Give the backbone structure.
Amino acid sequence: MTTETQPVNRFERRRAKTREALIGAARQILAESGDTSVSIQAIAERADVGFGTFYNHFPSKTDLFDAAVEEVLDEYGQAIDAYLTGVEDPAARVAAGVRLSVRMVESHPEVMKILRRRGLGHIHSDRGLASRALEDLRHGVASGRFAAADPVVALTAMGGSLLALVDMKFAHPQIDGEEAAATMAELMLRMLGVDAREAQCLARAPLPSA
């Protein structure tokens, strides 16, 4: 939270804390079952707030769950940004983004469980990793790093593939996630027109540190 958005008095701090508790409860529900039909009473109890307090913060359950997903998308994008700052090559960014995303299944399980359930509807979101990936694709095409293609279509293919990979890792935790992610990254780079040998190298290069 930035200085500009921090609550400035006790009332606002308390209000912000209650809102965070409600969003936290919604995130837990989305990660555990994805069942958005749960009652407002159940959400309030999980957040440890009064039933009537809910409507002081959200007009409906839909608004609450949307806010929870938006928070997760932002958290996801920021987590990847922490590693990719300073990485300029769009091909390297694509490869690292795939591999880091799969690592987050273990490092950020709640975030990735929610994306597993809700991510497909946000492949073209202006939040999270999608907007960053689209910028990388556009830069790659414009610079000739990637084959001339529609970046939005490429993003659709990449986003769907990545979500399927994340789902596979959750469904089959015994799978070597590192190798599966490297293979997926290599396939994506080849799809984008990167030379096969270079794609293989980039997909298995040391990952940048945060």
